[in-house]
Amino acid sequence: MTAITQAVLVHADIAVRAMGVDERLQLADEIFQQQPNLLASVLVLPSLGVTMAQLESVITILFVAWQAMKTSPHQWPLISEDVQQRCLDRLTGRIGFLEGLSGDMLAKATQQQIDEHPEPYLLAFVFGHLGEHDLVSVRTEAEKYLLLAALNLVDCIAAGAPSQPQPRTTPKRRR
User: Fold this and answer.
1) Sign of the CA dihedral 56, 122, 12, 23?
2) What is the C-alpha separation between 8 and 73, in angstroms, rounded?
């Protein structure tokens, strides 16, 4: 069951696109406070050769994902570095499996992985956003790291999502 529905994701994308600089800075502060490892996994990219223009695309993905996480009925635990590493290991394993497959087999295996992903709408958004910015084709080492970081965000969010919606807790009133 997906934790981030298509409707939640669309509203999050619209909200982020409408934000000004101050609102985006406030959103970054929220992420720093509640999911600092997700933010760090994006902010490290320039040290790996990612340009500021390319970084902007991954930051937008993070902002939309965060906005969707906030408005979904789920509460995410802190996504730790260990979770990030496990997700990255699985992701690189899936990519390694796809390498060397023939065109037809590659298409089938890729489609199967997309169909079985626990967050298909978020995954589709990431591929769409990166595609709009010509960042899906890996032509450089920096683009490889950018793509891995963006896809790992999706996997980390999926790994942290509870299987059932958790009601947001509010203090109960005493009578």
Assistant:
1) negative
2) 10
Question: What would the two tokens of residue 48 be?
Answer: 């790996």
Neighbours of 135 (CB within 10 A): 21
135 band by pLDDT with thresholds 50, 70 and 90:
confident
Taking residues 148-152, report their average pLDDT. Answer: 94
Instruction: Identify the three-state secondary structure at position 155.
Output: helix
Give dist(CA 32, CA 29) in Å, integer.
Answer: 5
d(C-alpha 126, C-alpha 131), whole Å:
8
Let me know if 66 is exposed, middle or buried by CB neighbors in 10 A (0-12, 13-18, 19+): buried
Measured between alpha carbons, how far is 64 from 16 in angstroms, rounded to an integer?
6
